[in-house]
Automatic annotation (TrEMBL):
Biological process terms in GO annotation: cytoplasmic translational termination
Compartment(s) where it occurs, according to its Swiss-Prot or TrEMBL record: Cytoplasm
Role this protein plays: Responsible for the release of ribosomes from messenger RNA at the termination of protein biosynthesis. May increase the efficiency of translation by recycling ribosomes from one round of translation to another.
Species classification: Bacteria, Pseudomonadati, Pseudomonadota, Betaproteobacteria, Burkholderiales
Ranges of residues in domain Ribosome recycling factor: 21-184
Name assigned to this protein: Ribosome-recycling factor
Keywords, comma-separated and alphabetical: Coiled coil, Cytoplasm, Protein biosynthesis
Entry coiled-coil feature ranges: 133-167
Predominant location: cytoplasm
Species whose genome carries this gene: Lampropedia puyangensis
PANTHER family for the chain: MITOCHONDRIAL RIBOSOME RECYCLING FACTOR PSEUDO 1, RIBOSOME RECYCLING FACTOR
SUPFAM superfamilies, A to Z: Ribosome recycling factor, RRF
CC per GO annotation: cytosol
Length: 186
């Protein structure tokens, strides 16, 4: 494996970390409704627990209301129960073939808790990126130890990996800042 391959591999893994971080952020509630908010909810379906998106269509009615339309008529009660029992603090209303999920306004205290959660997720993403940097640098050091590349090449490679790490850390910071603004907006 060459230093270029190590760098390319590290970059791909860092991009995956950012994608996972964005996915985690989409599950954190803001003042507005978002269909991704219900992605983490599991519903019992013929003895199996499956994601809500596999048994119903989740859409946005307006900025504060979600609509959940089950694909099977008898799933309405199970979906309503799963949403109510989730830790999202939502109170769905079953309208027969459609379940309306209004987003209650968040208190100032709840918004502050959400920003702490956003920062925590951001820190976890940064740790993941830094661990990938460490792994890449270790791989380069192993190449030097095995005399496959020179020490000058090691220094260049470590500098490239650091630039890559800085880029992804800055992206995480920007995402955290953007999500905090969303959460704190009334």
């Amino acid at each position: 494996m060459s230093t270029a391959e190590i760098r390319k591999n590290a970059q791909a893994k860092m991009e995956q970390s950012i994608v996972a971080f964005k996915n985690n952020l989409s599950k954190i509630r803001t003042g507005r409704a978002s269909p991704q908010l219900l992605d983490s909810i599991q519903v019992e379906y013929y003895g199996q627990h499956v994601p809500l998106s596999q048994v119903a269509n989740v859409t946005l009615i307006d900025s504060r209301t979600l609509s959940v339309q089950p694909w099977e008529r008898d799933m309405g009660a199970k979906i309503e129960k799963a949403i109510r029992e989730s830790d999202l603090g939502l109170n769905p209303a079953n309208m027969g073939e459609l379940i309306r999920v209004p987003m209650p306004p968040m208190s100032e205290e709840r918004r502050r808790e959400m920003t702490k959660l956003v920062r925590s997720e951001g820190e976890n993403a940064k740790i993941a990126v830094r661990n990938l940097r460490r792994d890449a640098n270790d791989a380069v050091k192993k190449l030097v130890k095995d005399k496959e590349v020179s020490e000058d090449e090691q220094k260049r490679s470590e500098a490239d990996i650091q630039k890559l790490t800085d880029k992804f850390i800055a992206e995480v910071d920007a995402l955290v800042e953007s999500k905090e603004k969303d959460v704190m907006a009334v």
